[in-house]
Specification:
- The protein is globular.
- The chain is mostly helical.
- About 2% of the residues have low confidence.
């Protein structure tokens, strides 16, 4: 008899998170298949998995903030402190552990990255706050964006809440978080930039990308205050989202174009927002495939942290694929190592830290249209 997936989790959100990390891992390990019969796999352009993560994160975090701030007429400082402590328990232990491992594999020449690029800014997530970085722990760029979003958004909400209701405050704060990065990209627009510098200057800088998570906040606001619309039009919105995604991945533009630097980085997260109402309605599933998707979703953070430098680059710099069967074997080994190590890291480090967090800092309360915890699980009191 087939069992259903964990009823405390929202399976549709697990699907989004699983696809996000699968796209990322495929992108980072594709070079291993060069000179094999699968060279060029997956043979079609993919949506940027990081944007899926960004929007989903904004949606879940937005729901937590709305739920918590609506408990009282006045936002309390203690609420912010508890929110930050919970977020830091969730993200920082894994990050600092993998940061240390990245430093060691570079320092001792296991992978070919530039140890001179490592500095204190990686500790404070300021290495790509307003300027490009490259050459060390590449995948940390998105973590900086998320951490600064977690810091800045609640502060903005508290400041604006002194003048208006929580509903209006949250919407105004969301629009600021969406519009300011767009204005910043307009300010730094560069029609002479190439693909590499586009990536590190626009795509991987905090001030340029906070809007990607901001769209997730907007989704949370709609879910919370206009839940009937969220449910009523979920199929139509999903179709529009897929159509927009198809356009995005097939419309190729030069990195020095206005579309690529300004528009693309906005419409991609919008397409993700459009698919979320239908995804969120998909509460559970059953069978081996469903369990596999849910497991990949659970370990996605660990997969994101280790897949590039600690696995793909170790293979590249020490066991360079020779093509043919050797390349295929090492590609399968790449996936096996990523999933196995991430599963162990989740079980023996990430999950225990989260359990400790939940014992020390409980943010949840029973409120109307409550959303989910940071990892997409239902509020235990619902």
């Amino acid at each position: 008899m087939k069992r259903y997936t964990d009823k405390k989790r929202i399976f549709g959100l697990d699907i989004i998170r699983a696809f996000a990390i699968i796209f990322v891992v495929i992108g980072h390990g594709g070079f291993i298949l060069d000179k094999t019969i699968f060279s060029g796999f997956p043979y079609f352009p993919m949506i940027d998995g990081v944007d899926l993560f960004f929007v989903l994160s904004g949606f879940l975090i937005g729901g937590i903030l709305l739920k918590e701030f609506n408990k009282f007429e006045k936002i309390k400082t203690s609420q912010l402190l508890t929110f930050w402590k919970r977020r830091w328990f969730r993200t920082l232990p894994n990050y600092y552990l993998i940061l240390l491992l990245n430093y060691l594999v570079v320092k001792y020449g296991i992978i070919n990255e530039d140890i001179n690029q490592f500095n204190f800014n990686f500790i404070t997530f300021t290495h790509n706050f307003a300027s490009p970085f490259h050459g060390f722990f590449w995948e940390s760029w998105s973590l900086s964006i998320e951490e600064w979003f977690y810091i800045l958004t609640p502060i903005l909400i508290v400041a604006i809440s002194k003048f208006t209701s929580i509903k209006k405050t949250f919407l105004v704060s969301t629009m600021i978080m969406i519009l300011m990065p767009i204005l910043y990209r307009l300010l730094i627009f560069d029609d002479s930039i190439d693909s590499f510098w586009y990536g590190v200057t626009f795509r991987k800088v905090v001030l340029s990308r906070l809007d990607s998570i901001g769209y997730g906040l907007l989704a949370a606001w709609i879910y919370y205050y206009y839940h009937h619309i969220w449910k009523k039009y979920n199929v139509i919105l999903f179709i529009l989202g897929i159509v927009l995604m198809v356009f995005i991945i097939n419309f190729d533009a030069a990195p020095n174009s206005f579309y690529k630097q300004i528009i693309y980085l906005s419409i991609l997260p919008i397409s993700v927002v459009l698919i979320m109402p239908l995804a969120e309605s998909y509460k559970k599933a059953k069978g081996l495939i469903a369990y596999s998707i849910q497991h990949i979703s659970k370990i996605s953070y660990s997969m994101y942290l280790i897949n590039l430098a600690l696995v793909a680059e170790v293979i590249r710099d020490n066991f360079s694929p020779r093509g043919g069967f050797d390349g295929i074997f090492k590609y399968l080994l790449y996936w096996l190592i990523v999933i196995t190590v991430s599963s162990l890291l989740y079980k023996y480090f990430e999950k225990p830290v989260m359990n400790l967090r939940d014992k020390k800092y409980n943010l949840f309360s029973k409120v109307k249209h409550a959303l989910y915890s940071e990892d997409g699980t239902k509020n235990s009191e619902e």
